[in-house]
Amino acid sequence: MSGKMASCIFCKIIKGEIPCFKLFESDKTLAFLDINPLSKGHALVIPKHHGEKLTDIPDDQLAEVLPTVKKLAAATGANEWNLLQNNGKGAHQEVGHVHFHMIPKPNAEEGLGISWPQQKTDMDALKKLFEDVKGKM
Predict the structure, then answer these.
(1) Are 69 and 83 within 8 A, CB to CB?
(2) What's the predicted TM-score (pTM) here?
(3) Which parts of the sequence belong to the HIT domain (predicted)?
């Protein structure tokens, strides 16, 4: 086991070394309540495969993530909610193991708050970007 995995809090939770409020578990996926919630029912869904960013996780290890998020939303009774997944410290990732937040948004004060710093669109630059990204898909 690599040093990162040995010190990873989510890997320790997966192995049962640290307790959690487990909501769902399979051979590839674990879901549990967030202990620092933004709202009632805020939960995490993680692949058991250790990887820091989404691009580090094999596709087959992610197959249950969205169905589990859907079940959590229904089970918590969330009518409106956010699904958040951050990649890298600059993008607000605090734990270096891929995780998805299901955050109920019951009102304006609770849940996830978002600013959306929309940029002015240069259509020529957008077309060039489109061609570049599409060519790499």
Answers:
(1) yes
(2) 0.91
(3) 9-112
Which is the catalytic residue, given 42, 50, 99, 101?
Answer: 99
CA 81/CA 117 separation, integer angstroms: 21
Q: Rounded to an integer, what distance in angstroms lies between the CA atom of residue 85 and that of residue 101?
A: 6
Report all structural domains of the chain as residue ranges with CATH numbers, in order of start. 3-136 (3.30.428.10)
Segments of the chain assigned E as strands: 22-25, 29-33, 43-47, 81-84, 100-104
Decide if 92 is catalytic. no
| Burial class for 121, CB neighbours closer than 10 Å (0-12, 13-18, 19+) | exposed
